[in-house]
Amino acid sequence: MNITELAKNAYNASLSMSELKSSRKNLALKKIVHIIKEKKDDILMANRKDLEIAENENLSKPLLKRLKFDEEKIQAVCSGIDMLIQLDDPVGKILKATELDQDLELYKISCPIGVIGIIFESRPDALVQISTLCLKSGNAVLLKGGKEALHTNKVLAGLITDAGKMAGLPDHWLTLLETREDVKDLLSLHQYVNLIIPRGSNEFVRYIMENTKIPVLGHADGICHVYIDNKTDIDIALKIVIDSKCQYVAVCNALETLLVHAEVAGELLPRLKSLLDEKGVEIRGCEKTRDIINVKPAVEADWGTEYLDTILSIKIVDSLEKAIDHINTYGSGHTDAIVTTSSRNAQKFMQRVDSADVFINCSTRFSDGYRYGLGAEVGISTNKIHARGPVGMEGLIIYKWILLGDGHIVADYAEGRKHFTHKPLDREYLSE
Amino acid sequence: MNITELAKNAYNASLSMSELKSSRKNLALKKIVHIIKEKKDDILMANRKDLEIAENENLSKPLLKRLKFDEEKIQAVCSGIDMLIQLDDPVGKILKATELDQDLELYKISCPIGVIGIIFESRPDALVQISTLCLKSGNAVLLKGGKEALHTNKVLAGLITDAGKMAGLPDHWLTLLETREDVKDLLSLHQYVNLIIPRGSNEFVRYIMENTKIPVLGHADGICHVYIDNKTDIDIALKIVIDSKCQYVAVCNALETLLVHAEVAGELLPRLKSLLDEKGVEIRGCEKTRDIINVKPAVEADWGTEYLDTILSIKIVDSLEKAIDHINTYGSGHTDAIVTTSSRNAQKFMQRVDSADVFINCSTRFSDGYRYGLGAEVGISTNKIHARGPVGMEGLIIYKWILLGDGHIVADYAEGRKHFTHKPLDREYLSE
Questions:
Q1: Residue B354 has pLDDT above 50, yes or no
Q2: Are residues B366 and A410, on separate chains, in Cβ contact within 8 Å?
């Protein structure tokens, strides 16, 4: 079958997925957990095959680490699914109900988006995690994983499909695409695919975003800032900078550029440098920074770079406004924090920093679906429509408008024989 | 100034717009009403100029009608603004509040999207309507109107800008673009423009959608269906079909294709034909339809055509499923209705028809922001993310996450010294 047919099948499956009762979706999730545990050895064997090939091809250490799908990861994805089963069904909720007139009732009801295209690199756990999120939210899914994880992905997709069949899910709700050409084709299928979620490196995500007309949920860069205000507690500032930069350097919510108000730079920077030296973090500073501490110079490109590494760029600014300008100019709209004792400055920062996540006196590393208590994370979005920041299952949900009438026609209202009442209705579910 | 600079100015203005208090925004709206009434003659004179040029250039009658901006339309836009003043401010609402831990509080707060690009044809009232909606929702706006309305648009944009200045709105919150080249440039400015709203013909909207990476809110086609079920009250069915088709033919929510269950076609079609003949509606039917009534044949292209005219295509189907398939294949995801006495069939139609607006036993013509009681209509969207169907001001709104801490760092949680509480908070507004 060619990919257009696969996508068409997925679209048809999505219509049936949208009708599923919560109990059936949860049953399918339980069966997925069961089959993954039961067929653990098949998964581990397939993954060893992928790892062997990858080692022979001299893939990098971090890539091998992401590719590895061991007992621990199996345990982790299974507890993830157990948590997902506990979550409320996001489909079929009445978001708004209005009586337009007697026996003419309008309902805004949550429903799945339809067909979600997931394109991810290396990590096979992403396959399990995102396909189960799509299942719970009633979406069909087209998956394309990295070729280095092909054997593992094939086994996992096969098991999830089998479990779905046992639970009575519609055929074709999940489809694994296998070739690199499939990605290009997938990106052009806006007729059938309603949302693309890419998971992988910045270059990879940027490539996806630049090569499709389908809406993309995600983020390319995470150029996060901490700004140390002139009104600040230096000890707290140091603690937040160290955590934001060092707690885990290779992630999108780690600190990349530190902005320091000129008035506190003299006191803060020497102490910060010795802490960062201990942690092996390289500092690149603006000229004014280099007047205070002996560090490498930062060049223009540093302000727009996501290092994802033990490197920190530092710039001294004269005012809160300059800090906000810098963030809105060079940032990626991901996560930015201020450390201040002034509620007025906190307020201004909060209002004018144009990012998905704006933090006051805490580490940028909190920007995460699990830490936010969302229950499950679809991804982190730097879009400015639909869903922003850490996105839970609500990112896979939209709504439709249902109007229930009894032979009502517009002419009666246009010609003044009838009048709209527009009364809010107190309904949780649609009555039959 | 080139358009990139104009857009950058709009972006900077959007940051200030997002901070405005409701009282200032409402004051600006009042001043706009006042100045439009006060300078009525300037507007009417500019509009006469546009109309004269248009007449000399032999523009079509419907276009001239849309271009006309007379006392009645001035009255209408002013009452629209009066209603907008009464609406709740959509900005700064706490959509969710969670205690992550003691003194670590997460808020999901509604905020403007940023810079909205509005591209519209002919109708100058659209300029007033959409720019005031952007104002109330705290967005900056770049406007590009049709060249045939240039004089009217210039006067209107000038008056709105003056009123905004008097009320203390930031400079550059509204910018009128004037040349056709500006549209192309606008479509490429995804760095500064966050959402495009096109208003005009299908071809126009499709052109916009196909030529930008910026999200577009709107719809190209409105190919709306009514399906007459086998379990149906024929009188009600006839009433709904006539209203859906004839109440106003030139609009996106008018009926274009009627689907009739074979069991009721024999009784329904002859009666329908005589009603439609009276109204001067041309029927194009499938073969089975033509076995019952003497009408022109429908060709494949008819099922995918939005006539916006006194033409109706009719197809006889064997089942509800076939009707749903037809709608999901040829429809545009706008508005589709079923006429049935079976709640089971209504339910199935409601679930499986993949459209923004799905109606049971009422006219497709109800699909409209005013009739839905939304207070104001930004447009009608056939997108499947962000906003769907008639979109009120919520379509111009997104949210940001604010995390208020007191020196909190992630290491404490990662290393087990502290634990998340994830308690919902009962807060309506952020306390300082």
A1: yes
A2: yes
CATH number of the domain residue B125 falls in: 3.40.605.10
Give chain A's domain count. Answer: 2
Rounded to a whole number of angstroms, the distance from the CA of B155 to the nearest CA of chain A is 32
User: Domain holding B303: CATH number?
Assistant: 3.40.309.10
Interface probe, candidates B99, B401, B425, chain A, greatest A C-beta count within 10 A:
B401
Burial A88-119 (b: 16+ CB within 10 A, else e): ebbbbebebbbbbbeebbbbbbbbbbbbbbbb
B231 and B348: one domain? Answer: yes
Residues B160 and B240 in one domain: no
DSSP A379: E
Do A210 and A232 belong together in one domain?
no
Residues B353-374 have a mean pLDDT of 97
Ranges A6-15, A372-381, B284-293: which has the least confidence: A372-381
Query: Among candidates A79, A77, A248, which has minimal Cα distance to B414?
Result: A248
Work out whether strand B282-285 and strand B311-317 pair parallel, antiparallel, or are unpaired: parallel
Closest partner residue to B372 among A106, A352, A409, by Cβ? Answer: A106
Tell me whether residue B147 is exposed, middle or buried, using C-beta atoms within 10 angstroms of its C-beta: 0 to 12, 13 to 18, 19 or more: middle
The share of chain A scoring above pLDDT 70, in percent, equals: 99
A302 and A339 both lie in a single domain: yes
ipTM of the complex: 0.95
Q: Note whether A201 and A238 are same-domain residues.
A: no
CB distance from B422 to chain A under 8 Å? yes
In a domain, B101, yes or no: no
Query: Do residues A205 and A288 share a domain?
Result: no
Domain that holds residue B66: 3-89+110-217+385-396
Tell me, yes or no, whether A259 and A152 share the same domain.
Answer: no
Are residues B210 and A210, on separate chains, in Cβ contact within 8 Å? Answer: no
For residue range A96-129, list pLDDT tens digits in order.
Answer: 999 999 999 999 999 999 999 999 887 899 899 9
Q: Which helix (H) or strand (E) holds B259?
A: strand B255-261
B201 domain residue, yes or no = yes
Same domain, B204 and B229: no
Name the residue facing B363 among A239, A390, A409 (closest C-beta): A409
- Tell me how close the Cα of B95 comes to any Cα of chain A, in angstroms: 13
**Spatial CA neighbour of B259 closest among B231, B303, B222, B227:** B227
Position B240 in a domain: yes
| Residues 138-197 in A contacting B (C-alpha not used; CB under 8 Å) | 194-195
Specify the pLDDT at position A208.
94
Q: Is residue A276 part of a domain?
A: yes
Contact B362 A404 (CB under 8 A): yes
* Cβ-Cβ contacts under 8 Å, B15 against chain A: 328, 351-352, 354
The partner residue sitting opposite B350, judged by closest CB among A361, A402, A420, is A402
Please provide residue B359's backbone torsions phi and psi, each rounded to the nearest 5 degrees: -115, 145
pLDDT for residue A245: 98
Please give the Cα distance from B96 to B75 (Å, whole number): 39
Supply the pLDDT for residue A432.
41
Chain B contacts of A406, Cβ < 8 Å? 361-362
